[in-house]
Amino acid sequence: MGLYLAHGAEGDSVRSTRQARAARFLALGDSYTVGEGVARDDAWPSQLVLRLRAERVAVEDPLVIARTGWTCDELLRELRAALPSLEATAPYELVTLLVGVNDQYRGRTPLQSRPHFVALLEEALRLAGDEAARVVVLSVPDWSTTPMARDRDPAAIAAAIDELNQVQRGLALDAGAHWIDVTPLGRARVTEPDFLAADGLHPSARTYGLWVEHMLPVARRIL
User: Fold this and answer.
1) Strands 94-98 and 178-180
2) Exposed/middle/buried for residue 153 (C-beta within 10 Å: 0-12, 13-18, 19+)
3) So what's the pLDDT on residue 134?
4) C-alpha to C-alpha distance for 198 and 200, rounded to whole angstroms
5) 70-96 burial, b for 16+ CB within 10 Å, e for fewer?
6) Residues 6+ apart with CB under 8 A from 131
7) Cβ pair 65, 75 in contact under 8 A
8) pLDDT tens digits along 124-158
9) 3-class DSSP state for residue 125?
10) DSSP 8-state assignment for residue 147
11) 143 with 186: CB under 8 angstroms?
């Protein structure tokens, strides 16, 4: 370790060490971070890395801890199990967090999932060397606009997603992390034929590319 100094202060040796190697990128989440329904290189973490490298930003391949179907508490459990190996290579110069849609899908309220999200955010901050400015929280996409929601109540789903994002946004900003709202990007393109992957639920490679366009300025500043 040895790259982080207390209270966020950095000496010349720390700066030179960071500049001498590629930045480490840890992506935490669920199916949206896995890139369910698209090729691995088309998932947004991989697309982000490729765009950064095209701008000559040295960054390692993303380390992804995510699985389709994970709720906040399930991601937290798996993250804590992986902490010994993660801490061996921490701090990470970029840590992203995108989770919560499966909590909503299972009928949990933001109040019920809040403690687990708070714990995830705390772990993300710690793995970023307690530098909140290196943590990025992405909003939960609105699946009410997909064919999977046709036999449900799309208006209720959208309202629940908005409530969830409002809670997560407040927590992220209070912690000093970045908040990137990708939800409107999906809602605005619901009628486009290549908006979704073949499963009719998850974003397509092109949609993930739009996310990356939205994220790139922030990631560039961080790294």
Assistant:
1) unpaired
2) exposed
3) 98
4) 5
5) bbbbbbbeebeeeeeebeeebbbbbbb
6) 4, 8, 91, 125
7) yes
8) 999 999 999 999 999 999 999 888 888 899 999 99
9) helix
10) G
11) no
188, pLDDT greater than 90: no
pTM: 0.89
Q: What's the pLDDT band for 11 if we cut at 50, 70, 90? A: very low
Q: HSE on the CB side for 194, CA within 13 Å?
A: 7
Taking the C-alpha atoms of residue 147 and residue 196, their distance in angstroms, rounded to an integer, is: 10
Asked whether 222 and 133 are in contact (CB, 8 A), the reply is: yes
pLDDT number for residue 223? 95
Residue 76: is its pLDDT beyond 90?
yes
pLDDT band at 186 (very low <50, low <70, confident <90, very high): confident
Nearest to 187 by CA among 219, 151, 136, 139: 139
The Cα-based distances of 210 to 71, 140, 204, 215 in angstroms read 25, 15, 10, 9
At residue 34's C-alpha, the angle toward residues 28 and 38, to 5°, is: 155
**Sheet hosting strand 94-98, strand order edge to edge:** 63-66, 25-29, 94-98, 135-138, 178-180
Other CB atoms within 10 A of residue 124 CB: 24
Rounded-to-integer distance, Cα 167 and Cα 114, Å:
8
Report the percent of the chain where pLDDT is more than 90: 80
Answer for the pair 176, 133: CB distance below 8 angstroms, yes or no.
yes
CA angle 156/171/135 to nearest 5° reads: 115
What is the pLDDT at residue 200?
A: 87
